[in-house]
Design brief:
single chain, alpha/beta, Rossmann fold, 4 helices, 24% helix, 26% strand
């Protein structure tokens, strides 16, 4: 398990860009963390890497799924409001995976048991007003310095 310590929003953005460089079509990345931990902010940084304007990236709390097109197709899912496993299954992530999308899921801890074993996970822990610990699952490999 790797831990990245972010001391600022700028460091979190750099981490997101570096993380994005390791993602490929068909990857699923789940994000766990409390309200305000920075899940959506990290997704904005990932999307920036794929030439998606960060202002277009909003948490799909009510729509459940947002789809963004840049150099890669990104599907952004928020599972916070789902009431059951069946609600998640109705989202049909296989449809998006078969189209070569990268799937980014906020509140992934709520549906982690439904995700394939190869899903990558990051838990964001708030350690201060602008500091965060990003705990990466073992299957996340980031090359070089962040």
């Amino acid at each position: 398990m790797n831990i990245f310590n972010s001391n600022s929003v700028i460091e979190t953005e750099k981490f997101g860009m570096k993380l994005a460089s390791s993602l490929k079509q068909g990857d699923i990345l789940g994000l766990k963390g409390d309200f305000g931990a920075g899940k959506t902010h990290l997704i904005k940084a990932i999307c920036s890497y794929f030439e998606i304007t960060p202002e277009k990236v909003t948490s799909p709390s009510f729509t459940l799924i947002n789809e963004y097109t840049g150099s890669k197709n990104i599907v952004h899912i928020d599972t916070y409001r789902l009431k059951s496993d069946e609600d998640f299954e109705l989202l049909d992530i296989d449809f998006y995976l078969n189209r070569g999308s990268i799937i980014l899921i906020e509140w992934a801890d709520m549906i982690q048991h439904l995700l394939p074993d190869h899903a990558k996970m990051i838990e964001i822990q708030v350690t201060g007003e602008t500091t965060r610990d990003m705990i990466l699952s073992d299957n996340i490999k980031i090359e070089g310095d962040i």
